[in-house]
């Protein structure tokens, strides 16, 4: 037992001793024996219910004994003495009630702390598992690539967001961002399955739209009962021209940040999510890339806000990209996530790639809000 705990346990005894000595010193004319009720009240602030009851009984016995010394059992003084003893008993009852409530609050606080610690541990395990499922930055030739993953604060589970990037046998580079519905182990398992199937399909399917079509059919064939949004893109060199070709299955549109700071949201006619109808016809879209251009693929957690429409989140993203234009890719991605303050309602996955070449220095970004 620590010294502080010993002091706490000795305080009620000290109160009884001080009151007893004070009553004796002041003499029979000054009756202070009622002050012994302080002992169980003090005990209720530090000790348990049993100890509080024990000190209450001790206080009652001390008051009764001091009453003999103070001649409080005479016919004239007895009513006042009985009131004093009743007061000590009532005070003990109040002390026991206070101790019970205090112990209940302490138990609830300890339980809340334990649950919070378990939640933090579960979130850390889930995030670690998610990052291992996603892997590190993709190794793709000819492009600088940066990835980021930020888990939602309201989930302590793995989720279905994923990014990927790899070189194909035809010399092009494929970029992927996807989001499986759900925030549980099933969503993570589906994500890993879809990611693996897409990688295999991508080596033989010629275009992004063909990759999504074949993935949709493959998922239907193995009976994957879920919905997935995704953007699949290729970066191809055709002579002196670098071309971004992409197909979008119901996913937030990529954003193109030009080397000179201009931005373009690559919105085209919406197409169905994966898992709705495998026979859906899908289309490819193209845009020319220039040295220093950056393409940002992301999941909806970056731009969706509670109580706001998606266009507002997209406008925010465009504004932030302009603010960070001209900065290194790592700083750009960290700056985007930094403005969120580390708290998001849904997982955020980012895949940013940049065409090599001289960047046009942009204005220095202001302090992150």
Name its key features.
rod-shaped, Phosphatase 2c, domain 1, 8 helices, alpha+beta, five-stranded antiparallel beta sheet, disordered C terminus, 46% helix, 2 domains, 10 strands
Could you characterize the architecture of this molecule?
By secondary structure, this protein is α+β, with helices and mostly antiparallel strands. It is 46% helix and 18% strand. The protein has a 5-stranded antiparallel sheet, covered by helices on one side. It has a 5-stranded antiparallel sheet with strand order 2-3-4-5-8. A hairpin with a 5-residue loop joins strand 6 (255-257) and strand 7. Helix 1 packs parallel to helix 3 (49-69), helix 2 (38-46) runs antiparallel to helix 3 (49-69) and helix 3 (49-69) runs antiparallel to helix 4. It is rod-shaped.
Could you tell me the number of beta strands? Answer: 10
Cα gyration radius (Å): 36 Å
Residue runs with pLDDT of under 50 for 5 or more positions: 359-369
Average pLDDT number? 84
CATH architecture type of the largest domain: 4-Layer Sandwich
CATH class category label of the largest domain: Alpha Beta
CATH third-tier fold name of the largest domain: Phosphatase 2c, domain 1
Strand order of the largest sheet: 1-10-9-6-7
Shape: rod-shaped
Termini separation comes to 50 Å
Number of helices: 8
The amount of beta strand, in percent, is 15-25%
- Give the SSE string: HHHHEEEHHEEEEEEHHE
Any idea how many domains?
2
What is the name of the CATH superfamily of the largest domain? PPM-type phosphatase domain
Structural class comes to: alpha+beta
Largest beta-sheet characterization: 5 strands, antiparallel
Percent helix, as a range, is 40-55%
């Amino acid at each position: 037992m620590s010294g502080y705990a010993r002091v706490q346990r000795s305080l009620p005894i000290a109160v009884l001793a001080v009151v007893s000595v004070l009553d004796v010193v002041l003499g029979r004319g000054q009756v202070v024996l009622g002050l012994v009720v302080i002992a169980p009240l003090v005990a209720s602030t530090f000790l348990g219910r049993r100890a509080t009851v024990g000190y209450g009984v001790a206080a009652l016995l001390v008051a009764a004994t001091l009453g003999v010394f103070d001649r409080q059992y005479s016919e004239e003084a007895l009513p006042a003495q009985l009131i004093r003893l009743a007061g000590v008993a009532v005070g003990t009852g109040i002390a026991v009630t206070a101790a019970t409530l205090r112990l209940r609050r302490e138990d609830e606080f300890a339980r809340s702390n334990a649950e919070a610690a378990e939640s933090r541990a579960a979130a850390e395990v889930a995030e670690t598992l998610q990052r291992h499922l996603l892997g590190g930055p993709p190794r793709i030739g000819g492009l600088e690539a940066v990835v980021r993953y930020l888990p939602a604060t309201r989930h302590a589970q793995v989720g279905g967001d994923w990014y990927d990037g790899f070189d194909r046998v035809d010399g092009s580079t494929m970029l992927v961002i996807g989001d499986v519905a759900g925030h549980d182990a099933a969503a993570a398992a589906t994500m890993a399955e879809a990611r693996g199937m897409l990688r295999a399909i991508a080596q033989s399917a010629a275009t992004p739209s063909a990759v999504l079509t074949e993935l949709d059919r493959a998922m239907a064939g193995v009976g994957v009962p879920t919905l997935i949004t995704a953007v699949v893109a290729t970066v191809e060199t055709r002579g002196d021209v670098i071309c971004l070709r992409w197909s979008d299955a119901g996913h937030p549109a990529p954003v193109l940040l030009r080397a000179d700071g201009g931005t373009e949201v690559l919105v085209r006619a919406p197409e169905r999510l994966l898992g709705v109808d495998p026979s859906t016809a899908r289309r490819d879209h193209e845009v020319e890339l220039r040295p220093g251009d950056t393409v940002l693929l992301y999941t909806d957690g970056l731009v969706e806000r509670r109580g706001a429409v998606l266009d507002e989140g997209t406008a925010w993203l465009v504004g932030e990209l302009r603010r960070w234009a001209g900065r290194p890719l790592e700083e750009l991605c960290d700056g985007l996530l930094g403005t969120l303050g580390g708290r998001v309602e849904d997982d955020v996955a980012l895949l940013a790639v940049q065409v090599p070449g001289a960047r046009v220095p942009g204005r220095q970004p202001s302090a992150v809000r």
